[in-house]
């Protein structure tokens, strides 16, 4: 992969992780929760925690995206069985957050 493509891919993963961490405290919260906590645009400026998340902590979405990225790099392309095995190991390690359906699929024992 040309360096510019790799840089863009890394930037996309990092940008996604930052966005995930910024939104994690408000995930599944009521409409307007962010505006209620930060009523004046431009004030604060630091990542906050909440909803069970520490400031800057990313969710299962980012954790799984990193596993896909690692697999793509190590396998030099998409190898679905490798991605699935990584997901299964991650789920078995009792992550802080995992969706109910995701956990059911990854812990079912089915290939």
Automatic annotation (TrEMBL):
Keywords from the UniProt entry: Hydrolase, Magnesium, Metal-binding
InterPro entries to which the protein is assigned, alphabetical: ADP-ribosylglycohydrolase, Ribosyl_crysJ1, Ribosyl_crysJ1_sf
Positions of the UniProt region annotated as Disordered: 34-57
Cofactor note: Binds 2 magnesium ions per subunit.
Compositionally biased residues, Gly residues: 42-54
Cofactor: Mg(2+)
SUPFAM superfamilies the record matches: ADP-ribosylglycohydrolase (SSF101478)
Binding-site list for Mg(2+): 59-61
MF (Gene Ontology): hydrolase activity; metal ion binding
PANTHER family xref list: ADP-RIBOSYLGLYCOHYDROLASE, ADP-RIBOSYLHYDROLASE ARH3
Protein family: Belongs to the ADP-ribosylglycohydrolase family.
Protein name: ADP-ribosylglycohydrolase
Species assigned in the record: Streptomyces davaonensis (strain DSM 101723 / JCM 4913 / KCC S-0913 / 768)
């Amino acid at each position: 992969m040309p360096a510019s493509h790799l840089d863009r891919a890394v930037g996309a993963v990092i940008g996604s992780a930052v966005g995930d961490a910024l939104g994690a405290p408000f995930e599944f919260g009521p409409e307007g929760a962010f505006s209620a906590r930060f009523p004046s645009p431009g004030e604060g400026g630091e990542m906050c925690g909440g909803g069970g998340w520490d400031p800057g902590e990313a969710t299962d979405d980012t954790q799984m995206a990193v596993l896909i990225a690692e697999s793509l790099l190590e396998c030099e392309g998409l190898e679905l069985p490798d991605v699935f095995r990584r997901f299964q190991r991650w789920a078995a390690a009792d992550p802080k957050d995992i969706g109910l359906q995701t956990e059911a699929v990854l812990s079912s024992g089915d290939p």
